[in-house]
Amino acid sequence: MSMKTSNRQVDGVTIVDCSGRITLGEGSVILRDTVRDLLGKGNKKILLNLGDVNYIDSSGIGELVSAYTTVKNQGGELKLLNLTKKVHDLLQITKLYTVFDVKDDETAAVKAFSK
Amino acid sequence: MSAHRVSYTLDSTLDTVNSAEEVASKIATEAGFEDEEVMKIAMAVREAAVNAVLHGNAYDPGKKVQVDFERTSSDLVITIRDQGKGLDLNKVPDPLAPENLLKTSGRGIFLIRSFMDQVEINPSQTGTEIKLIKHVHGPAADGKEASQ
Known about the structure:
The complex is a heterodimer. Chain A is α/β, with parallel strands linked by helices. Chain A has a single domain, classed as STAS domain (Transcription Regulator spoIIAA, 2-Layer Sandwich). In chain A, 40% of the residues lie in helices and 32% in strands. Chain A contains 4 helices and 5 strands; from the N terminus they run ββαβαβαβα. Chain A has helices spanning 26-40, 58-73, 85-93, 106-111; strands at 4-10, 13-22, 45-56, 77-81, 101-103. Chain A has a 5-stranded mixed beta sheet, sandwiched between helices. In chain A, strand 4 (77-81), helix 3 and strand 5 (101-103) form a beta-alpha-beta unit. In chain A, helix 1 (26-40) runs parallel beside helix 2 (58-73). The longest helix of chain A is centred in the middle third of the chain and has 16 residues, at 58-73. The mean pLDDT of chain A is 95. By secondary structure, chain B is α+β, with helices and mostly antiparallel strands. Chain B is built from 3 helices and 5 strands. Chain B has helices spanning 14-30, 35-56, 108-115, and strands at residues 4-11, 64-71, 75-81, 118-124, 127-135. Chain B has a 5-stranded antiparallel beta sheet, covered by helices on one side. At the A-B interface, helix 2 and helix 3 of A face helix 2 and helix 3 of B.
């Protein structure tokens, strides 16, 4: 299953619902383009909902890191929501779990963005 | 001790990466590994295939990637060879070092080592060979259950 994203706005936060695989090639490119488009439109509070992301490889992890640093460098915030066990475990072993702000409740995650 | 072995010679494309991953998943499942172990084996193979296609052969259409799967009664052994310049292991960074945590690449070999029981990397001037070994705990290679 290839990567798909859809965006919605909640209280000034753009929630990006991701599904499928974030891997080298199409999946990573879609994530990169999505984040770039949002920043281009001035949407700098981004919550990546990874609840339906069932697979991610090292390229996908790199793309998440890239998204995080790109948003941060532009004065925005990027948080992760609803990690599956596979993605959670990968972020743990790569020591990125503490780098990202990871949430498991959407309402609380939206409130956690700075006003 | 009987052994099953299958070999594939593949182009230096992203399709090869996906194919190698799919075959690894199928063979690991048939070898009796649990779902989580199958995922780890398939991901290690994917990462090794990415290295072969992207960093080894650099998508060169004239260069091939060879993937061998060998099942013995004790191990699943997967060997992936490229025809690149040979990986310089001294240039593989530690992705867990604080200064590397936010780098966007360099985690492939770390993940491979995390997911497999044994990893051997043999670079040469004619390419890099990486051998991934996972100890088998399921049915033996001849299809019979291991004796109790």
